[in-house]
Specification:
Elements lengths: L1 H7 L4 H28 L12 H5 L5 H18 L8 H8 L2 H11 L1 H14 L1 H28 L3 H20 L4 H32 L10 H4 L1 H14 L6 H13 L5 H29 L16 H19 L2 H10 L1 H8 L1
């Protein structure tokens, strides 16, 4: 990522590449200590130490070790998932990266955080997860709302989508920490949904930037009449982000919120209600961005000469839209498969 951004990026590429590298190295350092701690406590009854996740899950790591290594592994993976307050590498990295790298960054890299929290932190140390989840629930709940509020203030298209990613990826970690099957299913659906819709957003932003040579929404307007295909696709991406029924964002977020509200205590319900406010905030920045970018008068007369998407651009964008709509309209085959795969995790949490 350092080379991809530092060499081929734009804007403050050296600063962004160094910031991303140092923060991810810091998270990786915590993660390395956590993984080594799990390894050296993988056979508490004696026997062969192991790095095999399935073998380690058969044993109970001592609680004293879990209290130490669960936070290290969760924070280490949480840095990858842009968890507050370790999220600042992500917006700068997105903004300076080339379009393809931004798509890879948001669609794949950030999902490693959620996967690791599932597969390592919670699956191998379930007792500590039950005891300490409230701490990280506060941080991830903050991520959801803070990321959405920050997106409202941005004028750069990439920064808007980057802070949107902080909010949506925060929702993944938030759902994981609810520690029930419904919310965790929603977390995985959110990972799939976010990977698709943020890749679509960054692809469209790259296509628009390639034509207008600006990402500042204050310098654009009326592009729907100039580039109708890209404009319509941009609206669809925005509606998916704010959770319109029939698109993947709605299915993922509703599953997360329904699962989160299954907890009857005041603490969990308060943070669930707080997280749901992100729906309204997301609608504000998405509709503001779409309105300024696509509608109204054309701000720059040169933009009237712009061309719409080429065949290859139409094909790639349409492929992502079909996937987003398919997941939104026919979600059960995916959600059922996810729910079934989560049974071992739930068994670990309730043993």
């Amino acid at each position: 990522m350092y080379l991809l951004i530092g060499v081929w990026g734009t804007g403050r590429k050296e600063y962004s590449a160094m910031k991303l590298t140092l923060m991810l190295m810091g998270g990786s350092a915590l993660l390395l200590v956590g993984i080594l701690g799990i390894y050296f406590h993988s056979a508490p009854e004696g026997g062969q130490l192991s790095m095999n996740i399935l073998e380690i899950s058969k044993h109970t790591i001592p609680m004293s070790a879990q209290y130490l290594f669960f936070p290290l592994t969760f924070v280490g993976f949480g840095v990858l998932g842009a968890m507050f307050p370790f999220h600042t590498w992500s917006p700068d990295g997105h903004a300076s990266a080339p379009t393809a790298v931004s798509m890879l960054h948001a669609g794949v890299l950030m999902k490693l955080g959620g996967y690791g929290c599932f597969r390592v932190a919670i699956f191998l140390m379930p007792e500590a997860a039950n005891e300490l989840s409230w701490i990280f629930l506060i941080l991830t709940g903050t991520s959801v709302v803070y990321g959405a509020l920050s997106a409202i203030k941005q004028t750069d298209l990439k920064y808007i989508n980057a802070y949107s990613s902080v909010s949506h990826c925060g929702l993944v970690l938030f759902a994981i920490l609810m520690l029930n099957q419904t919310a965790m299913t929603g977390a995985v659906l959110q990972m799939l949904s976010h990977g698709l819709m943020t890749a679509l957003f960054f692809a469209l932003i790259g296509m628009i930037y390639g034509r207008t040579h600006t990402r500042d929404i204050r310098e654009m307007g009326g592009l729907m009449r100039v580039m109708p295909f890209l404009g319509v696709c941009f609206v669809i991406a925005g509606l998916a982000s704010l959770g319109l029924p029939g698109l993947s964002g709605f299915v993922a977020e509703m599953t997360v919120f329904v699962g989160s509200f299954e907890h009857t205590d005041t603490f969990h319900r308060f943070f669930t209600i707080l997280a749901t406010t992100s729906i309204v905030i997301t609608a504000v920045y998405v509709l503001r961005m779409v309105g300024k970018l696509l509608y109204g008068a054309v701000q720059n007369p040169e933009h009237l000469k712009l061309t719409d998407a080429t065949f290859s651009e139409r094909f790639s964008v349409a492929t992502l839209i079909v996937a987003i709509a398919g997941l939104g309209m026919v979600p059960l085959w995916v959600s059922d498969m996810i729910s079934y795969s989560l049974i071992p995790v739930i068994e670990q949490l309730t043993r």
